[in-house]
Amino acid sequence: MQRITITIDDALLAAVDRLCERRGYDSRSEAVRDIVRGALAPDHAAEAGLAPCYGALSYVYSHGTRDLARRLTDEGHHHGVSVASLHVHLSRDDCLEVAVLRGSVPAMRSFADTVTTQRGVRYGHLHLIPEGDEADRHGHAGAVPEPGGADAAPGQQGSL
Ligand code: NI
Fold it and tell me: Could you confirm whether domain 44-132 is CATH 3.30.70.1150?
């Protein structure tokens, strides 16, 4: 075991203490170890060779942070894994964004890390979702078929 010192603001420390009480951790150290384990836990489904797959990246950001919205958009174009996104104005200062991603797990992780480590971005979470077998993909009434007969792939529809 190693002993480390971290710096944390009062409000966040109070939240850690509430988490300790709610979940029954014996100490702050145990709570922090568990939080770190959770952050490092591999997604078994996605890392079992199922790439490419889908991902849902959600995060809250402060739109008042200088240039942040533009930088986040630039990252999306640069990484090329963002398929679609949803934007909700949470409060006067904060926006909630959910980006649907598609690509290899390392590419999506890299994009997610780039976004969630920006100053002004909070509550970042990447949820990995294995892609189904292409041959078994189902259609919906009204979907535009590809010339080959299969449904149009995500990201190719509605691009007029
Ligand atoms: Ni907004």
Answer: yes
